[in-house]
């Protein structure tokens, strides 16, 4: 497994898209923090909590794209056969990609939280004294990015197309979940992506279960379809 992780780490860090997507997620959050830090008419809101919301979901989409690229680019450039030859076991390939992507996603989540706070302070805003809503909003970014990155790995392995997988992830997170909440009366806290973004345990649990099942399906697909 150590060899598989080293192989996957070299692949991931050599891709320019990995670092551009991480940087993009951080820049989005810094810009959001700066905007809310410059806002002097917040009423009962605080700048840090307000700086998350929709923007951290866009950042999570960029992090998911890192996971999607783990398989999507392999199929696009025809290098999956080389990966299979080197690592052999489909389970080892998926596990290594999931672990490396999870590490990068966690790094991206931390970067997003830090740069959000930096943006608020740069704009002259103040960070809240206590944890409260701001603490929950910041803490939610970490499981949101990690689970999104892992979901991206699974989607990339299942769909074998980077653009299609990104589109499916975006459609689910920004369209399907909104429709389920508005039309299906499903509690937002129980939805995988939205619930995780709210740091709600039901949503995080559902997201985690879906990710595990999807990664298992990716292993099966890799063994059967690409063997």
From TrEMBL:
<keyword id="KW-0472">Membrane</keyword>
<keyword id="KW-1133">Transmembrane helix</keyword>
<feature type="transmembrane region" description="Helical">
    <location>
        <begin position="94"/>
        <end position="120"/>
    </location>
</feature>
<feature type="transmembrane region" description="Helical">
    <location>
        <begin position="198"/>
        <end position="223"/>
    </location>
</feature>
<feature type="transmembrane region" description="Helical">
    <location>
        <begin position="140"/>
        <end position="159"/>
    </location>
</feature>
<feature type="transmembrane region" description="Helical">
    <location>
        <begin position="20"/>
        <end position="38"/>
    </location>
</feature>
<feature type="transmembrane region" description="Helical">
    <location>
        <begin position="50"/>
        <end position="73"/>
    </location>
</feature>
<protein>
    <recommendedName>
        <fullName>ABC-2 type transport system permease protein</fullName>
    </recommendedName>
</protein>
<feature type="transmembrane region" description="Helical">
    <location>
        <begin position="166"/>
        <end position="186"/>
    </location>
</feature>
<keyword id="KW-0812">Transmembrane</keyword>
């Amino acid at each position: 497994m150590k060899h598989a992780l080293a192989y996957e780490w070299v692949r991931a860090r050599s891709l320019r898209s990995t670092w551009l997507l991480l940087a993009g997620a951080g820049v989005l959050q810094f810009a959001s923090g700066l905007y809310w830090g410059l806002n002097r008419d917040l009423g009962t809101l605080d700048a840090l909590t307000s700086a998350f919301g929709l923007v951290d979901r866009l950042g999570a989409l960029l992090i998911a794209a890192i996971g999607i690229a783990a398989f999507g680019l392999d199929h696009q450039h025809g290098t999956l056969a080389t990966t299979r030859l080197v690592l052999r076991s489909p389970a080892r390939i998926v596990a290594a990609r999931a672990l490396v992507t999870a590490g990068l996603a966690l790094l991206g989540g931390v970067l997003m939280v830090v740069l959000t706070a930096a943006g608020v302070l740069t704009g002259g805003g103040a960070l809240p004294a206590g944890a409260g809503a701001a603490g929950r909003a910041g803490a939610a970014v970490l499981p949101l990015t990690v689970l999104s990155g892992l979901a991206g790995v699974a989607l990339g392995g299942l769909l074998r197309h980077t653009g299609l997988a990104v589109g499916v992830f975006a459609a689910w997170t920004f369209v399907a979940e909104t429709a389920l909440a508005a039309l299906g009366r499903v509690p937002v806290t129980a939805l995988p992506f939205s619930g995780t973004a709210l740091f709600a345990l039901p949503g995080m649990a559902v997201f985690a279960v879906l990710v595990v099942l999807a990664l298992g399906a990716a292993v099966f697909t890799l063994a059967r379809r690409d063997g």
